[in-house]
Write a structure and sequence with these properties.
With 71 residues, the protein is mainly β. The chain is 14% helix and 52% strand. Strands 1-2 form a two-stranded antiparallel ribbon. A two-stranded antiparallel ribbon has the order 3-4. A hairpin with a 7-residue loop joins β1 (8-14) and β2 (22-28). It is elongated. It starts with 7 loop residues before the first strand and ends with a strand.
Length: 71
Amino acid sequence: DTPDGSDEFVRMEKTSFGGENLFEIHYHSMEKIRRILEESGLSVIKEFTADYKEGDGSITTDSIMIAEKRA
């Protein structure tokens, strides 16, 4: 889900891979991503989360969806 609970959220932030550079990061709810995939002819076949340890020791949880083209 997005940081503020909305369907879409955008903010400037530093990343663990970008040094001091700021990046415009777009967050989308899992429901929105699922809807876009399905509207594009794809079916979600697997969905899971993975924890990622940041340089400062905090943990970021990434959401992953795997989709395939419908026959």
